[in-house]
Amino acid sequence: MGGTDAKDILGLPKTPLSLTQEKKSRPQKESHRKPDGISREVYALTGGVAPLMPSIDLKRRPPADEKVAWKWLSFTNSARKDDLQLYHWVRVVNDVPPTGDYSFAKYNKSVDILKYTDEEYENHLTDSVWTKEETDQLFEFCQNFDLRFVVIADRFPVSRTVEELKDRYYSVNRALLRARAQSPADVANHPLMKEPYDITRDRERKRALSMVLSQSRHQEKKDAEILAEAKRITEMRLAARRAEEPDVSANENAGLDKADGVVPGRSVSPTSNSQLPATAVAPSTLTMADYASTLASLRMLHVYLRTYGLEQMVQAASSAVGLRTIKRVEQTLQDLGVNLKPKVPTKTVCDEHLELRKEILTLLNLQKQLQYKESEGSSHREGSYAAMPDTPKDRVFAPDPFSFGAERPIKKEQKRKGPGRQADTPSPAHKRPRKLKASDL
Amino acid sequence: MTNSSSSKKQAQDQPETSEPTLKSLKTKMTKSDEKQKKLKDIEISVPIVYGNVAFWLGKKASEYQSHKWAVYVRGATNEDISVVVKKVVFQLHSSFNSPTRVIEEPPFEVSESGWGEFEIAMTLHFHSDVCDKPLSLYHHLKLYPEDESGPLTMKKPVVVESYDEIVFPDPSESFLARVQNHPALTFPRLPSGYNLPAPMQVEDTGKKKRGDTKDHSLGQWFMSFSEADELLQLAAARQQVQAHIAKLRRQISLLEGQNQTVKTGSDL
């Protein structure tokens, strides 16, 4: 009981193995139903096995008394205006001649074109560009060619474009609908009113489509590269803006602290002689607030281990940044030859460790800012080539790669001695000959 | 040596603790409540080391009795931690006779023999004035050495130890009075105007009669932990990082100047 409570309080992940066994659901038995048409005795002989062949329905037989013959007969087509008579073979059953119209006549569809009277034209449809004769001709062609404007444009006596013909036709229809309606609300839901024909947009759409269809492969590649570059620049700017956001929240915390008039808590870092630069104050304020809350929560526990406290501090500092940044911080610690977890976690060592992590975070933020400013500068330079053609390209500052591998890492093996505290000096001059060395692990 | 190092530690802690302590003292004066039991912004830490020492039994070793080992919790410099710890409960593997061992007197250790490596839980129970909640430590018993090249030897044991500190925030007055000037604890410097009551003589007499942890039978094999090496590592790493930060700041300021020049040109 005590151990379990302690584990819960300290948040240790010592959970026992869960041995819950799930109940197996019983599979339902399949009930074989006797198929129709087969007697019970015959089905019992099969032993319940499904029949290999489907049962044949022998009762249904084609009637033998029906007489079928094919005859060459004439027919009329109601879709035609003339009285042309044609002949075809027809299936005749029991000498009954076929009746009705030609079966394919139903596919002769026509578009419903609005008609207007001379009075309506004088009142609503007069136009400065189109004459009445031209409009009458347009509507006749729309009737004959079923609104196929490409064909209408080809046959139209006056030279007009497809867009102009469409614009005239649809504007006349809208005017007629508006004139014949009782009120404007009646025709508000009509498709021609809701989505009016836009001649300008139609022209632009066709021009763009023509350009796309006619561009060369080389131009296509160039466009793709330009789009990729623009996307990368946008992402960089977003990342830089996101990196600057924690500063704003830190300032808000500082404001809250001032408003309360209470110091957030005892400073975690030891007193340092050098003052922190102005740009580094904001992130330290953010981590200071997190440290204060973590310290308060640690104080609630009446007893805790130093390593546990350090873990909580590291988690509090890491919660403000993303997972990738945490990985980069830890990788940097390993490159510097520092243990991710101190071997001798005294208070001083833990405080130094936290300060180091904070400074590494500052370093990574500065790297992001540098990359952002470099990309910004290069984009400005490209834009200003026309204004300043003599600007040389050599003035771009190449950033130094962030690598500690070149520098000598400091790795000291810990010295192990017998009982008694080791002297504070890192390398004692004299060793006692009597004491035996412990085995190196 | 021990006194000088502990005093140095106190000196290190002094600048952090003094101002909050004075503030808490002012608060106390304002309240004029002298019966307050706990002191705020003061924490006591007890450096401890826990681990195991394992000896191979050599020719006497059998399939089930290959090693003789001892698992323990001790003060970092082998000081007597019974002023803080009342008892330690060791939870061994279930295959042992009476796997739960309660040790109520120093040295807090369990000696056994066996062949398997397993996790040992150690629950530290403190005195009533120290803390009511027990603290659990976990150590994986290690019998076989890491490097397989060397043959097994009876003369050199396998030693695996971990250093840690038990931290008591807001300790009680009686606890402070009882353990002041004790070498097992890291004691913060109290404000000059504050006086603790005199410690009781009876406990001192009782303490002398208990077993002495200085002369430990396994003391020659214990590891020594020094924070100086780790502090040097951290200081060197911080210097490198700060140098890089300064370099990046210079580059950023240079780029800003150049970008402003480019913008001015484009405006013209």
Descriptive report:
The complex is a heterodimer of chains A (441) and B (268). With 441 residues, chain A is mostly helical. Chain A has 13 helices and three strands; from the N terminus they run ααββααααααααβααα. Chain A has a two-stranded antiparallel ribbon. Chain A is flat. Chain A is 49% helix and 5% strand. Among the domains of chain A are: 68-107, no CATH class; 118-212, Homeodomain-like (Arc Repressor Mutant, subunit A), CATH 1.10.10; 287-378. Chain B is built from four helices and eight strands, in the order αββββββββααα. In chain B, strands 5-2-1-8 form a four-stranded antiparallel beta sheet, with no helix packed on it. The radius of gyration of chain B is 26 Å and the shape is extended. In chain B, β6 and β7 form a beta hairpin. Chain B is 32% helix and 25% strand. By secondary structure, chain B is of the alpha+beta class. Chain B has a domain at 49-164: YEATS domain (Immunoglobulin-like, Sandwich), CATH 2.60.40.1970. The chains are: A mainly alpha (441), B alpha+beta (268). At the A-B interface, α1, α10, β3, α11 and α13 of A face α1, β6, β7, β8 and α4 of B.
CATH topology of the domain at 118-212 in chain A: Arc Repressor Mutant, subunit A
Q: Which oligomeric state applies?
A: heterodimer
Radius of gyration of chain B: 26 Å
Kindly identify the CATH topology of the domain at 49-164 in chain B: Immunoglobulin-like
For the largest interface, the chains and their residue counts are: A-B, 89 and 85 residues
Poorly predicted parts of chain B: 1-37, 200-210
Q: What is the C-level CATH assignment of the domain at 118-212 in chain A?
A: Mainly Alpha
SSE arrangement of chain B, N to C: HEEEEEEEEHHH
Which structural class do you get from the secondary structure elements of chain B? alpha+beta
Q: H/E series of chain A, N to C?
A: HHEEHHHHHHHHEHHH
- Portion of residues in beta strands of chain A equals under 5%
> What is the second-level CATH architecture of the domain at 118-212 in chain A?
Orthogonal Bundle
Largest sheet of chain B: 4 strands, antiparallel
How many helices of chain B? The count is: 4
Keywords (chain B): Activator, Chromatin regulator, Coiled coil, Cytoplasm, Developmental protein, Differentiation, DNA damage, DNA repair, Flowering, Nucleus, Transcription, Transcription regulation
Region (Disordered) (chain B): 1-36
Domain YEATS (chain B): 38-182
Organism (chain B): Arabidopsis thaliana (Mouse-ear cress)
